[in-house]
């Protein structure tokens, strides 16, 4: 998964669709573990981002991005925080 500044959003009609578009089974897992599953199942997702659940985000749609919302409260390491909503393409 990429945190690099060179990442670029792919938007329709430039989207490719793979195995999964959402991962409800990952709610309750750790952020880092969730990102590893997404990378394994959807290598075309080049922008996977761990996001604190109360963060302000844009509403644009990118078919190569997944935001993984986690509960980082009381922790400096969001990759070990718990996923609080269904990760999905967008």
Automatic annotation (TrEMBL):
The keyword Magnesium is annotated on this UniProt entry: no
GO process terms (BP): response to wounding
Transmembrane segments: none
Cytoplasm is among the record's keywords: no
InterPro entries referenced in this protein's UniProt entry, alphabetically: Prot_inh_pot1, Prot_inh_pot1_sf
Keywords: Protease inhibitor, Serine protease inhibitor
Top-level taxon in the UniProt lineage: Eukaryota
MF annotations from Gene Ontology: serine-type endopeptidase inhibitor activity
Family, per entry: Belongs to the protease inhibitor I13 (potato type I serine protease inhibitor) family.
PANTHER family on file: OS06G0319900 PROTEIN, PROTEIN, PUTATIVE, EXPRESSED-RELATED
Protein name listed in UniProt: Uncharacterized protein
